[in-house]
User: Fold this.
Amino acid sequence: MELPTDFLTYSIWSGYLTIAFLVLTLIAWVAGWGFKFRLVGVTSFMGVITASIFALSLGLFSHTTIPGAARYSLVFDNGFNKAVIIVPPDIKKSAIAPTLRQAAVDLSTYGRTGTIGNDQFTIAIRTVVHPQDNLSIPLYLGQAKKSFFATDNEDITIQIFENNLNQLTVNS
Assistant:
């Protein structure tokens, strides 16, 4: 089940619920109910929750989509400077570079840091081919390197392994 990430809608509905609790709290104060202080706490908490959800709706999540990129899965990430993604074996040659660029954009975070002499984040792309029954071979199709200090997404070096691409078309 996939939940939508439209936090503005969530904040609107949370605001409605907060207003409903505020009205109920006012009625409790006017009627002299014994649990009116509990309703004050619930209303205050709902106000904090509403403000938090609204803050998330202001643009915390920004996702860049690279045209022509294929779907991939992350199969290895050391959290530092290397990651490996996997794609289906029927990927088109024209989709490899955009997929590497998409992965470089998606996986580059501020938490990754380089070491002295190694300021590159390397993402390898691979697939699994089955040349015979009961035999699976990982086949690396290319890699992308991005500097940890680069602020734009254009500073990505992509290398495609042509020999492995030829093996991919032979095995298909």
